[in-house]
# Entry
Amino acid sequence: MPDPVRTKSLGRGRAEWYFVEMRHRHLIHEDYTLAAIDDIISRGRWNDWSELRDAARADPKVLERITRVCMANAGDPYAQRYFFWMNYAKEHRSAA
# Structure
C-alpha cells in the first residue's frame, strides 16, 4: 500500500486519507538505469521491489546494474537494503 500523502477535509474535524502512487525520480522511462535502481532500492516499497525483481529476472543486464549499485554502498554497515539486493543479485546471477 502506498504511503498516505494528503488528506482532504470532510468537514466537522473529519478527514479522509487518499494515496498517490509514487513514481521514482530517475525512472522517467521504463529502463532501469543505475540511478533508478539506486532510488528504488533506497526509497522503494514492496511493489517497487517486486517490479525490480521481475525486471532482474527478465534481463541479466539489470542484475549487473543492481550489483554495481550495491557495490558502491558496500562500505556502509547500515545499508541493509543494499546487502539484501547484493545477495539477491549474486544468487540469481549464478543460477542463470
